[in-house]
Amino acid sequence: MGKVVVVTSGKGGVGKTTSTAALGAAVAKTGKKVALVDFDVGLRNLDLIMGAERRVVFDLVNVIQGTAKLSQALIRDKRLETLYLLPASQTRDKDALTEEGVAEVIARLRSVFDYVFCDSPAGIERGAQLAMRFADEAVIVTNPEVSSVRDSDRIIGLLDARTMKAEQGELVQKHVLVTRYDAARASRGEMLSIDDVLEILSTPLLGIIPESQDVLRASNLGAPVTLSEPLNGAAKAYLEAARRLEGEDLPVVVPFERKGFLDRLLGRRAA
Amino acid sequence: MSILDLFKRRTSAPVARERLQLLLAYERQSRGQPDLVSILREEIMAVIAKHVQIDQDYLQVSMDRGATMSTLEIDIQIPNKSAAPLAMAG
Q: May I ask which residue range the UniProt record assigns to the signal sequence (chain B) (predicted)?
């Protein structure tokens, strides 16, 4: 029985899709069978981030409506044999997803794959609730910024109330993944620190992904950053986060930027 | 503003943390409960409507939350024309 992990955030643009791709690829690299499911019906993007946008024939909605088989809709990654993508529909509206349909698809994926990553749409509406509905674990992607932290708190509330696990009296295991972290700004007191975020959300930390040009470059090229540039800072942080997700006890090091005397004096921004 | 302030770097993160802590404490508490302000608004409206005819738009109810105390602000505008009690109109 595979594990179902929802990647969610409430707020849009914080890095859910990028993180789904990077974490999924990192886990698949270890030989585990991984399926990435895009729940953002109408605004799919995981296919683009994965570089599979031209290979989409059938999608999640087709499978739920019975017009395609699951095996027909799953796209195998060209780089990793163990990595698969189930794209969202681009044309239909989000009401095309039914809870029964999603339940069946997730159950079938769970029986075949070791990990099923559900890339949630932004918001707290139906689509986001269906993405988290059958999750065993949740990765809450948060930027160290007030609106993102507030929305994450809201999502945590939903994870504790509206998921199948919560309704059965169990808990979805939650992890915070801080993305777009700028160590220089945090050290100058211009950005919420990791401690601030963790204290406010009182949820364990999965990792800290530094703000990085590499992530954008990876998106441009259509490759998860953990595959295209595994030695980069952001990629390393994702690879470590993936190991923690698999249960490894790996300490998180908060990125720190040492300020030189001149920087202090001039209040200079580190590049 | 003194000359010293020019050199002192303002840090905004502590402000952000405090604002968030305050806000989330309130939001967590009221989670799952119906919106208090809109209930108050509806009931106040019903009471006033018994005696004076006013438009929905003339009633403003807002709640300002503070650390130790919150203030409820109710602003009711009664236009002079329709200010006459219903009993007299009837």
A: none
Domain B16-76 top-level CATH class: alpha beta
d(CA A208, CA B76): 50
B32: left (phi over 0), alpha (psi -120 to 50) or beta: left
Token pair 């998921």: residue: A163
Beta bridge partners, A86, equal A37
Q: A135: which 2 tokens?
A: 């999750």
CB contact under 8 A, B24 and A200: yes
Distance CA A59, CA B47 (A): 55
Per DSSP, the three-state class of B21 is: helix
- Cβ distance A153 to B27 less than 8 Å, yes or no, reads yes
Say yes or no: B11 contacts chain A, CB-CB below 8 A. yes
A103-122 residues touching B, CB cutoff 8 A: none
Per-block average pLDDT, block size 10, for chain A (271 residues)?
96 96 98 97 95 96 94 97 96 82 97 98 95 98 96 96 95 97 90 93 96 93 95 95 96 76 55 42
DSSP state for residue A266 in the 8-state scheme = H
Q: Which residues of B touch A188 (CB under 8 A)?
A: 9, 11
User: What type of residue sits at position A256?
Assistant: F
- CB contacts under 8 A, A 177-206 vs B, are 186, 188-193, 196, 200
B20 chain-A contacts, CB cut-off 8 A: 146, 149-150, 192, 200
CATH number of the domain encompassing residue A7: 3.40.50.300
Domains contained in chain A, number: 1
- Listed in order, strand segments (DSSP E) in chain A are 3-8, 34-38, 75-76, 83-86, 115-119, 137-142, 173-181, 205-210
**Does residue A18 have a known ligand-binding role?**
yes
Task: Say if the Cβ atoms of B23 and A196 lie within 8 Å.
Answer: no
In one-letter notation, the amino acid at residue B78 is I
Q: Is the pTM of this model over 0.90?
A: no
